[in-house]
Design goal:
The chain is mainly alpha-helical and 455 residues long. 69% of the residues lie in helices and 0% in strands. It has 16 helices and no strands. It has helices at 3-21, 24-38, 43-75, 81-107, 144-165, 172-194, 199-202, 211-229, 250-269, 278-310, 315-330, 338-361, 370-388, 394-422, 429-434, 436-441. The longest helix has 33 residues, at 43-75.
């Protein structure tokens, strides 16, 4: 005898009988619970999940600070590694403090614009009260604290881009002064024009996670600093030829790249700002997959082009090709398919291979290649939005690139020049020759290496 064939129908009939015996109100409640399970999550649950994705994304973007530190430590020479690590720690700390006391309210003024759509509000960031209840928060978005935590990591990232370009020939305190102005004023003001609902957003400019708002801003600031600082001693000869100044540690460069690659999943993925619905979580997954595709496209394109042009695959090109692919897809990682995202990233890798020697022709000394990666690929990524997003138009994208570029160049130049006049930017020639580890930090990264102070 088939026991289950007898038991299952009996249990089903018993359940139907019990359900029918319930009062009408209880039946309706049971039906409502079934519908709730089958439908979308409650508003409270969506609010919690939306806040959670920003916290997780913020942690991943914070991890990018380690990526920048390792990348730069590998690209600089042995005698400047401790200085570069010190800059990354203090720079991150200054950026977070500046964004807290000034930047956040300027970037997200709400209804408190000082100049509508152009200049935000003055004030420190204020979080919600301890143990706040659901009646005191906007349940359609997320907690203020999670939003602040996520956004402060983006601000620090913009500053990190500058650090690598001006490495090995800038003093610590003038650099930190520039970082303070960049993260308290320059970055938040232009970011408010898009993400704070300012005039660029109103005219239709699209930038999902910051190819322009974050990466190009850091690139413009880095380019301005490199021009004002000048090149490292011994980088260029009088006849225009270039002396290669090899970095200290290729494994650290690769480690830094992979940490940044990982952090980008939070950078782009959490920029969806929601995971409380089926559509949102599907879009987050799509963004992360496309982000990965962009990096792959950039790395492979850089490797192939380097082989074709130089008959060797320069590892630094491939490292920066992957990063340029990530920057390129950051402006719109949602709407492309995987193949298109790979192609967008591949163009970023090509940009790196062509623009690194181009900068050398103009004697612009970019130690880590941040200008090609973050500025040039950021511009490309901003323009590439029009190819995949039907809501994008070329004119607003071009206007945003131009307006943000002019603003950041002018504001950065003023800040760099003031710092130069008041403190001086460069160390002495002797300090630069010996290395900033000895001259400013007092702790050498590789004290056991013979001749480390002149390498």
């Amino acid at each position: 005898m088939n026991f289950s064939a007898f038991v299952r129908p009996a249990l089903g009939a018993l359940a139907l009988t019990a359900f029918a015996a319930l009062p009408a109100g209880a039946q309706e409640a049971a039906e409502g619970a079934t519908e709730a399970v089958a439908g979308e999550a409650s508003q409270h649950t969506q609010f919690i999940l939306n806040s959670l994705i920003m916290l997780i994304g913020g942690i991943l973007v914070f991890w990018m600070a380690a990526g920048f530190a390792m990348l730069e430590a590998g690209f600089v020479r042995t005698k400047n590694v401790s200085m570069q690590l010190l800059k990354n720690i203090t720079m991150y700390s200054v950026a977070c403090f500046a964004y807290y006391i000034i930047g956040y309210q300027i970037m997200y003024p709400g209804d408190g614009w000082m100049i509508d759509g152009v200049l935000g509000a003055i004030g420190i960031a204020v979080l919600e009260p301890v143990a706040v209840g659901p009646d005191a928060v906007d349940l359609t978005y997320a907690t203020v604290s999670s939003d602040f935590f996520f956004q402060i990591m983006f601000c620090a990232t913009a500053a990190s881009i500058v650090s690598g370009t001006v490495a090995e020939r800038i003093k610590l305190w003038p650099f930190l002064l520039f970082v303070f102005v960049l993260t308290a004023l320059i970055y938040p003001i232009q970011a408010s024009w898009k993400w704070g609902g300012g005039f660029l957003d109103q005219m239709g400019f699209l930038d999902f996670a910051g190819s322009t708002v974050v990466h190009s801003v850091g690139g413009w600031a880095a380019l301005t600093g490199a021009l004002i600082l000048g090149a490292r001693k011994g980088k260029y000869n009088a006849d225009g030829t270039v002396n290669v100044l090899p970095g200290s540690n290729m494994p650290l460069e690769v480690l830094g790249m992979f940490i940044l690659w990982m952090g980008w999943y939070g950078f782009n993925g959490a920029s969806q700002l929601a995971i409380g619905t089926v559509a949102d979580i599907a879009d987050v997954g799509r963004v992360m997959a496309n982000t990965n595709a962009g990096a792959i496209g950039g790395a492979l394109a850089a490797a192939i082009l380097a082989q074709v042009l130089y008959k060797k695959v320069d590892l630094t090109f491939v490292i920066n090709g992957a990063l340029a692919g990530l920057v390129s897809v950051t402006a719109e990682p949602l709407t492309p398919g995987l193949g298109t995202a790979s192609l967008i990233g591949a163009v970023g890798g090509v940009i790196v291979v062509f623009s690194v020697p181009l900068l050398d022709k103009f004697k612009i000394d970019d130690v880590v290649g941040a200008i090609p990666v973050h500025l040039f690929a950021g511009i490309w990524g901003t323009l590439a939005v029009v190819f995949t997003n039907p809501d994008a138009a070329l004119w607003p994208q071009l206007v945003a690139i131009f307006v943000v570029g002019v603003f950041v160049i002018v504001a950065s130049a003023v800040t760099w020049l003031i710092a130069k006049a008041v403190f001086g930017l460069r160390p002495t020639e002797e300090a630069e020759y010996l290395g900033l580890d000895k001259a400013e930090v007092g702790v050498e990264a590789y004290p056991e290496f013979p001749g480390a102070t002149i390498r």
